[in-house]
Amino acid sequence: MEDIRSYLESGILELYVLGELSHEEAAEVQALAVKHPEIADEIAAIELALEQYAQSNAIEPDTAVGQRIFAEIGPAISLPASPVAAAVPPQHQTVTDPETGNQSARLRRLQFWLAAAVTLLVVSAGALFYTYSELSAARERITGLSLQNQQYTRNATYMLKSNEELRTMLNMNADAGWSAVRLAGTAQAPEARMMVYWHKESKQVMVNNVNLKLPEHDKNHQYQLWALVNGKPVDLGVFDAGKDTSSMMIRMKEIATAQAFAVTLEPAGGSKNPTLERMVVMGAVSI
Amino acid sequence: MYSAALYGVISRIVIQTEIAEDLLQETFLKIWNSADSYDSSKGRLFTWMMNIARNLSIDKLRSKDFKNAAKNQDIENNVNDIDRGNNVSFNPDTLGMRDLMGSLKPDLQRVLELVYFKGYTHVEVAETLDLPLGTVKTRIRLAIMELRKNFN
């Protein structure tokens, strides 16, 4: 106790507060102040006295100076209420700010790129889907068009052929050499009838496929045209009734002389001799 | 409020207004930059700030360029400067404190002024005033005791 009193009275604490002591001495005073509250109290009292002494002798600096100082110290920080508030807490900010600033900036950049990537993905997927649907539609249209094209080609071929046949028929009409033979139905098929054209000089024989009226036959049978030459039947070939409409005229085998024509129903491919019971039409050459 | 108190001390150590203002700025810069080295368990914030202000001012006072600048002053002002160098002089703004200082005994007043405002170490004071070191210490203590009495 006595030691502390003399320590207090030695004047070392005053020098400590005035910053007059060396580092070692100051550290010693601090250590003692921690141990003895009387010393700490004395130091606080001295500090307070000198602080009040300074406060009572305060000189307000020019306001321009204050502004200059704040402009120098805290360009990023708005004018603080008091220098103390400005002096102490910003230390935290200046230490942590650059780090968190960098991180948040990097985070923001990453977020931006992520958003950009997702947007790109969505747009790409949309574009892909659109392209795919367009492609399917185009394929369908191509299929339709090619079908149509085939149809037109077929039509065109058919019409060309028909045209040619009509021309032939016109020529036949104009050519006196052609004679038309009307075949009438027999007792077998009273309703049946057909036309055969024969050119005596060129020996050509044609069957009119347009106004052909013969009973329907099954797959295993075909009609066979016969020419009666001096009482004997001569084979002029087979034809189908009603099924093949691609031609208006069916060209048959040639014959130089004939008194009559007849058609019998024969097994598919024809027979050597006509089956007379199955004769459907017959007609004599009028000349 | 601290700025005025700090400026009061600075402008007593360094009389030239411009330099004192610069020093105040330097003081705040240093406080700002070394705020994390302040330890509240070692003393009051103001004491810490005040010692920064005093050390900067005294360093300035003893620096080469300041002494050179002082040497280059007009001869007319020389008398004043010499006078100032030998005596404790007062900034006109601080006239109010004279009463307070006046209440101190002249011996105590002189010692405290030299230490607190002129930046003398107690060793320098002892040499200057030709006093034993122990006496200087005692006088400083007594002066502060007086102040404590006055303020409380």
TrEMBL record, chain A:
InterPro entries, per database record: Anti-sigma-K/W_factor, RskA_C
Domain of life the protein comes from: Bacteria
Entry keywords, A to Z: Membrane, Transmembrane, Transmembrane helix
GO term, biological process aspect, one: regulation of translation
Record Pfam families: RskA_C
Residues annotated as transmembrane: 112-132
Residues in Anti-sigma K factor RskA C-terminal domain copies: 113-275
MF annotations from Gene Ontology: sigma factor antagonist activity
GO annotations of cellular component type: plasma membrane
Protein name per Swiss-Prot or TrEMBL: Anti-sigma K factor RskA C-terminal domain-containing protein
The organism of origin for this protein: Pedobacter yulinensis
